[in-house]
């Protein structure tokens, strides 16, 4: 017999993701991003997880975290610049149906970047 499907995520898990996203934006605002492309992809994946979990909870359930997410998005936008393609590559973006409008975090990179990340971004196709 197959195990039951997982239950809905806990609202606390979503709040934790929003906290992570907020911390990333604050870090980008304050200092150079010192990690590589794999780390950047993992960091922006947090925002995708938030997007996927949001419909399961009301703004009331999120409480202050609803506003925290709005603020974190604004900070992230201000600390990043548009990137010509999805940081995961065009094939992944097409397969996942990610667009610069709906999944904008995948189409942005840090303004205060580093040489390794910039070199790796130059190879994204």
Brief summary of the model shown:
With 125 residues, the protein is mostly helical. It has six helices and two strands. α1 packs across α2.
Describe this structure as you would to a colleague.
The chain has 125 residues and is mainly α. It has one domain (11-121). Helices cover 57% and strands 5% of the residues. It is built from six helices and two strands; from the N terminus they run ααααβαβα. It has helices spanning 11-30, 37-53, 59-62, 64-79, 90-96, 115-121, and strands at residues 80-82, 108-110. The protein has a two-stranded antiparallel ribbon with strand order 1-2.
Topology, pairings included?
Blueprint: H1 11-30, H2 37-53, H3 59-62, H4 64-79, E1 80-82, H5 90-96, E2 108-110, H6 115-121
Antiparallel strand pairs: 1-2
Q: What overall geometry do the principal axes of the alpha carbons give?
A: globular
Q: Outline the biggest β-sheet.
A: 2 strands, antiparallel
Strand order of the largest sheet: 1-2
Tally the structural domains. Answer: 1
Features:
125 residues, mainly alpha, two-stranded antiparallel sheet, 5% strand
């Amino acid at each position: 017999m197959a195990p039951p499907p997982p239950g809905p995520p806990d609202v606390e898990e979503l709040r934790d993701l929003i906290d992570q996203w907020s911390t990333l934006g604050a870090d980008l605002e304050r200092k150079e991003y010192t990690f590589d492309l794999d780390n950047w992809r993992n960091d922006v994946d947090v925002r995708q997880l938030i997007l996927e979990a949001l419909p399961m909870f009301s703004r009331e359930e999120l409480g202050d975290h609803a506003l925290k997410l709005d603020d974190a998005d604004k900070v992230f936008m201000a600390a990043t610049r548009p990137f010509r393609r999805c940081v995961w590559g065009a094939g992944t973006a097409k397969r996942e149906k990610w667009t610069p409008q709906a999944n904008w975090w995948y189409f942005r990179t840090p303004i205060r970047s580093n040489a390794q990340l910039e070199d790796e971004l130059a190879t994204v196709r």
